[in-house]
Known about the structure:
6 strands; alpha+beta; DNA-binding; 5 helices
Amino acid sequence: MKYWLMKSEPSELSIDDLKARPRGTAPWDGVRNYQARNYMRDDMKKGDQILFYHSSCPEPGVVGIAQVVREAYPDPTAFDPKSHYYDPKSSPDKVQWMMVDVKFVRKLKRVIGLQELKAERKLDGFALTRRGNRLSVMPVTKQQWDTVVGME
DNA sequence: GCCAACGTTGGC
DNA sequence: GCCAACGTTGGC
């Protein structure tokens, strides 16, 4: 089993939104970055654990835990001209973008803020806090996972 | 709204 | 293959 961190803007999909979905499950659509896609397509397996991170919001930080419940399949928003995530270079015949389904596990008792994560020495080298990192899907080591969850 | 940092595009 | 221009991300 692997560990991941996934970023979501709470105005798009917050941890509470995820919890409120039927079965607490949502497709992780809209990823349009090759590296993030490759992680989802090649490495994410059912049961993998996810740190759910809120970005572009008043209090950026890790807010909860989710897990992978369906492995990679084509992201239909790429084929939909009306979608904000439409990609004309993609088609059902030539799938470019894939997504996984994630399921709510639990909320953390509090938000582990970005500043706190940056200040934690045990998280030196953490992909999230590396300068200029913009990946929305990134791997987390077991040690990093334990450290973050341990800060709850 | 600003800006740093990065990815992508396209001319050559 | 290089690199400038442009678009996006995301914190502040």
